[in-house]
């Protein structure tokens, strides 16, 4: 399903799941939006579901959360599930809580000011509430439930500097833990985590957890460990997987291996042009200088290929890397209309109960693409 132009992509956004090779099926989800980004997959007894955010342009107030469910033939037409007219609603997470509630968590920010973001939670279809977390808190990874019933929500903090614009240069990682079903949260700092964002938890057994990070510095995927159910974390260290300052998705497979979906490339491999910031196109009037100090965020490194990487040593190394789809990955602009953006990014990866790997990712900022890889495909890797 190689589609090049925005018009061709739009024509293909019918949600129909088509077989493209043995053990592989693909679809472009049916969305009414010009821009679609940041997919989040989940599986429940009623099937596989996908959330993402859509609208005209990331950071605009018309950006809302959309949701679709997978049927035998493909994806249902997208349904809009949030409606704040004043904030850009982004990075959705769906969580089927142990108490039976189906919860939607997402971020909501004014314009490109991620340091003024709030995290909201609602029973799907009901009125949201802002979580008791500091302004500037962002989410991306799924919620996990500990053996003692506590909820674990990975965070990253878009830290502001007085009188200066947020740029990502002071972002750090943390884990939020709730023992009262999401009513209140306490935060556990990840030490030495400046630049580490999109924290993604992976259970290793017992009280042992690993977590993986996208890096603002566009160098490598980083990894940290906890031996006490997330109550403390080691200083993150680089893995052998390059990172381009774009999202990753990491899960533990049924066979015990760790699988990571990502774009395994970095700034050192691509010395081409850069973009100034994440929100270049918004055109917001803001006379504040960029934040000083911190790390050096790098924006504009190509976001391709979309790759699945596999580890047999609990995510310390990923020697097996398989390309799902390749392309130029151009991302110097978030524009979904003129065809200049050709990223394949922000993956969400799950393994369904039948063994199928489901992967969803941003396709040229125009669509959400879904690839289903059957159990027989995984057995051959």
Describe the structure.
The protein has two helices and 26 strands. The chain is mostly beta strands and 381 residues long. It has a five-stranded antiparallel β-sheet with strand order 1-2-26-25-24. The longest helix has 7 residues, at 6-12.
End-to-end distance:
22 Å
Unreliable stretches (pLDDT < 50, length at least 5) are none
Based on secondary structure, the structural category is mainly beta
Could you give the order of the helices and strands?
HEEEEEEEEEEEEEEEEEEEEEEEEEEH
Q: Work out the helicity level.
A: under 10%
**Continuous helix count:** 2
- Rg measurement, Å: 19 Å
Strand order, largest beta sheet: 1-2-26-25-24
Strand proportion, as a percent range, falls in: 35-45%
Shape: globular
Mean pLDDT value: 95
How many distinct beta strands? 26
How would you characterize the largest beta sheet?
5 strands, antiparallel
How are the elements arranged and paired?
Layout: H1 6-12, E1 18-21, E2 24-28, E3 35-44, E4 47-55, E5 64-69, E6 79-80, E7 88-96, E8 102-109, E9 118-123, E10 129-130, E11 137-138, E12 144-145, E13 151-157, E14 172-178, E15 186-189, E16 196-205, E17 208-215, E18 220-226, E19 237-242, E20 249-252, E21 258-262, E22 306-311, E23 320-325, E24 344-351, E25 357-363, E26 367-373, H2 375-379
Antiparallel strand pairs: 1-2, 2-26, 3-4, 4-5, 5-6, 7-8, 8-9, 9-10, 11-13, 12-13, 13-14, 14-15, 16-17, 17-18, 18-19, 20-21, 21-22, 22-23, 24-25, 25-26
Supply database-style keywords.
Sialidase_sf; five-stranded antiparallel beta sheet; mainly beta; Sialidase; Exo-alpha-sialidase; 381 residues; globular; single chain; 41% strand
């Amino acid at each position: 399903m190689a589609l090049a132009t925005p018009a061709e992509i739009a024509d293909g956004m019918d949600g129909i799941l088509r077989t493209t090779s043995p053990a592989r099926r693909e679809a472009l989800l049916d969305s009414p939006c010009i821009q679609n980004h940041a997919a989040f997959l989940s599986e429940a007894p009623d099937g596989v579901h996908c959330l993402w955010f859509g609208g005209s342009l990331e950071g605009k107030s018309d950006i809302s959360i959309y949701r679709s469910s997978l049927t035998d033939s493909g994806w249902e037409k997208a349904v809009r599930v949030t409606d704040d007219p004043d904030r850009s609603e982004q990075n959705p997470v769906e969580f089927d809580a142990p108490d039976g509630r189906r919860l939607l968590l997402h971020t909501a920010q004014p314009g490109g000011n991620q340091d003024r973001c709030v995290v909201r939670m609602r029973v799907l279809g009901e009125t949201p509430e802002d979580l008791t977390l500091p302004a500037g808190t962002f989410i991306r990874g799924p919620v996990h439930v500990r053996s003692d019933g506590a909820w674990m929500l990975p965070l990253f903090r878009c830290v502001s500097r007085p009188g200066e614009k947020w740029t990502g240069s002071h972002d750090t990682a943390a884990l939020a833990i709730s023992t009262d079903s999401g009513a209140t949260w306490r935060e556990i700092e990840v030490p030495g985590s400046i630049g580490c964002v999109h924290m993604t938890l992976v259970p290793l057994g017992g009280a042992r957890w690993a977590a993986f990070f996208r890096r603002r510095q566009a160098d490598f995927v980083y990894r940290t460990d906890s031996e006490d159910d997330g109550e403390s974390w080691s200083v993150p260290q680089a893995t052998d997987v390059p990172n381009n300052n774009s999202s990753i998705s990491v899960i533990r497979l049924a066979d015990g291996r760790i699988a990571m979906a990502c774009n395994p490339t970095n700034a050192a491999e691509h010395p081409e042009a850069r973009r100034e910031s994440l929100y270049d196109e918004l055109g917001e009037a803001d006379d504040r200088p960029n934040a000083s100090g911190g790390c050096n965020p790098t924006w504009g490194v190509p976001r391709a290929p979309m790759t699945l990487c596999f580890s047999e040593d609990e995510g310390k190394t990923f020697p097996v890397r398989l390309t799902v789809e390749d392309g130029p990955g151009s991302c110097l602009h978030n524009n979904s209309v003129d065809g200049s953006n050709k990223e394949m990014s922000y993956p969400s990866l799950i393994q369904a109960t039948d063994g199928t790997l489901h992967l969803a990712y941003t396709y040229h900022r125009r669509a959400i693409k879904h690839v289903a890889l059957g159990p027989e495909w995984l057995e051959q890797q």
